[in-house]
């Protein structure tokens, strides 16, 4: 994990219903592990084979629940996360199935859910650039 301090987004407030479409148009989506009172907007900065680098924007719900458009929340400090997943066939015969064979198994355990990010300056810059593309939403 690599933090990206950003005075532009940190501490900003928004209503979920007012920003969700504009965020999705820019490639930011609520990740699958959201809760009613906290979540992350994830944006893929890089994806190649089994490696994905995500820009993650934490949000903390101050009023309402996140499954509603009137949820009011605050952004926390963005960070980068590198995720490594299996790209080959599972080595344990007990876990092997047809989805593994054709590469569609979506529930494999990651090799490393928080791998070290190389070239930190490059990825911090890429993350900040992606955050800056959100500027029109807040003006």
From TrEMBL:
This is YugN family protein.
